[in-house]
Amino acid sequence: MSTSERRRRTEEPPGSASGEGRLPGRKAELELIGALLAGPGRGSSGLLLHGEPGVGKTALLDAAATRATALGMRVLRAAGVQSEARIPYSALHQLLYPVRHDADRLDGQHRDALHQVFGLTLPAAPEPLVSTAVLALLELITAERGLLMVTDDVAWFDDSSAAVVGFVVRRIADAPIVFLAASRTGTEDLFRRSGLPEHKVEALAAGESGTVLDAHASGLAPAVRRRLLAEADGNPLALRELPAALTERQLCGQDPLPDRLPLSRRLAATCAGLLAELPAPTRTLMLLAALDADAGVTVLRAAARGTADLDDLVPAERAGLVLAPAAGRGLTFCHPLIGTAVIDLAAPSDRRAAHEALAAALTDEPERRAWHLAEAATGPDESVARALDEAALTAWRRGTAPVELPPPVGALVSDRRRVAASSAVTALVRAGELSPHPVDRSRRLVEAAFLATMTGQLDQVNRLLTDAGQTPDTPTGLVFAATAHLLTHDDGDVDAAYRLLARALDDVTCKATADDWDRLGILYTLLLVSLYTLRPEPWKLLDTAMARFPAEAVTPFRLCYDAYIDPVRKSDAIREGLADAFAELPIDAAPWQIVPLGFAAVAMDTLAGHRSLLVRMIERERDGGAIGMVIPALLLLCQDSYVHGRWDEAEQLAQEGLDLATAYGYQFWEQQLRAVLASGAALRGNADLARSRSAETTTWAAPRGMEVTEGYARSARNLAAIGQGDYEEALAQAARIGPPGAPTPGVPGRWMVLDYVEAAVRTGHLADARAHVRAAQEAGLPRIGPRIELITAGAAAVAADDRAAAGLFEAALALPDACRWPWDYARVRFAYGQWLRRTHDMAGARVQLGAALETFDRIGAVMMAQRAAAELRATGVSVTPRSDAAPEPLTAQERQIAELAATGLSNKQIGERLFLSHRTVGSHLYRVYPKLGITSRAALRAALEALSAAGADDHAPGDAAEQ
């Protein structure tokens, strides 16, 4: 969607349609209005709608007017205007002006009174005479057809008009007239005291809010969408206007959102009108509260410095803008945007003065004080820069936000850790700006650059490093680490990253401490490089680097190292260490503490008992936090869900991670997730899609030396071949992941013993299969954990001769907790059933094959379910295969992108047309292919044509019936 198109959609009249489809969440109000219009003159013909500004009152009045016109009724409208509130009869003039010529048909006294109203002449006619004249005019014009009177913003009606309209409304119960009015909550006017029935228009619920937002701003990055929904808080005007004030790059997640979202002119004007009515002391307290979400009553009083007190909040409370401060707590804004508007509409000098006052009141809280001092500063100040520096890094180390950066509401984000990472970058950049000495400025900008690699701000890293420049004391080790992290995530250049990390560690020669967050960051980057390459050098460097720290400071890294390098000999110690480490994590544990433990737990197949810790970290960090660690956490949860048979959940997690990786430019994680989704397609039985995804990942990983990523991709091709019974291909792919006869405890090879052995047996390489089993047993692979024990035991049964096979199969299936791994367990049962059928034990075969079929069906392994069903039918059992679920439909944006791609446009060209990044376009196409059952761009046109034809067929019977 172009910028101009987005703006036009935002500026459409809110009530341009009368149905609920254009007013989501307003079914009750529309039914209430519909009932009034259907039966005017039956004793209840009026209604006063009230609610907060922008909640949709005017849209409901517009819908009522549209409906009344369709019913053949006349519609008269008026809206209160603040500038006319002191002009007698100005609102009545607006309301009745369309029927002014009908006044000539009244008797002389009533006619003259209304002529004075229409001429706005002085002296004004007396209210009683005007009131009866209006009644007479309405009786005259409703003789032919019914009437709807619509009045908006009645709080701004002049007193004379309000009195006359109130008089009339109380006397039209039996007339063919419906009266609808709208007023802002918190206002006092004559209508609120007239006895007119009232209905409060509430904020939209979450689902309806999402519908409105998506209708006005499609293609939002997930984090951006969540932020906009949170700030709009169910207000339809905000849902339409907030996206309009952002750039296209911000909307699609390419650029970070500001700490305080900008207000559109319409939103600013709406809020300005509310705030202008308040006394200066009230606005002072509201500004202080808006600038510091955590400011309690004591802090607010101290910062006000005697110019305001809590009693001054009463006008804002009456206007429905704030809630009274609770005991020990501060001010709460009734809507998030009120706090934003208070800050935006304040003069810069007033904002600086408020920050200074808050800093003076926060002497016991140095971190919050630091930010306020920084915001109040007008030039370099080392003391302020140092305080802000310390606050930011303390927040990153311990996992709490240094302070609330100028918040949109005061308290948009309830969990302060959620914004710690991105706010630490902002604080360091601000500290750099305030640094009078080049050395300090350089160091702080380098630190900001390194943290930006973790917070989804990869496009800022090079700029920050360039701005930092070079001084004799610039922390070159951190420069190397930031560049290595960028190279790893942005392009997957792990070779260059490894060399830079080696230089970074060379630059850091002294003994590290547990608080050296920057060196721990170097360890984390080095761990990522090590995890996805089979070369020993990165692991050796990691081991050397860990030796520079106290052992307790690097426990997560040590456990991860052991889980990948020495899982057999240290399996018990690793398992015990992981249980203790997860148990000892603080509730706000930093991501770099959790993610390495997650990788270790996945390698040892023990993550299931600790998922909640990763989930909590993801929820805490996904919006404005350490996005670079949220994505691998989603990957780890996805892998755990796959091995436990929750494949729908696994795919949702992978897709969420892929969306984030695409939006924030983490190409490294994007490819890891694509490899996992390739295996998911293979497990589901979509062999063509699995091979296509595998080839894509292999093409990316192989030249970069990412052997582990390539191994996962080849594992997908192996699984696809197994599902199709193509054991020659399965053997070829398994052999390329690990050498035949020499299984290693590396990943993913440690989980592929059965894959190789079964393929070797089915292709006549029985000796090789048995040698592989022996090697796995001698290498101690079963000691790694119960899942690998099941896999190895199953492989031994598959390779055994007929005398030993039954006992080995039974032993494998009887292993403790074997059924916790449904895919592996069902594969062993399936192989057992095949062997039993081949040896003519049909009864036993039916039991094993039936159980395997049930599991394959339950977890969604379509091809394997079909193979199990075929084997079961061969035993004489009639089997009806479970029908596949209907394919998921394309979303509107997916359809639009697919149609453009089918015309031959590149991802970049499509992105330019729709104001999306080329990576976002690619991510959408990645979801489109499996929905359409295709594997490449070349098949899009035919698939879309078939989809359109199917849609036409679906509608044909109904159309024929109507004809």
Structural description of this entry:
Mean pLDDT is 86; it is low at 1-20, 399-419 and 952-963. By secondary structure, the protein is mainly α. The chain contains 47 helices and 7 strands. The longest helix is centred in the last third of the chain and has 23 residues, at 940-962. A hairpin with an 8-residue loop joins β6 (322-323) and β7. Strands 2-3-4-1-5 form a 5-stranded parallel beta sheet, sandwiched between helices.
- As an assembly, this protein is single chain
Helix content: 55-70%
Low-confidence stretches: 1-20, 399-419, 952-963
Shape: globular
- The portion of residues forming beta strands comes to under 5%
Integer average pLDDT:
86
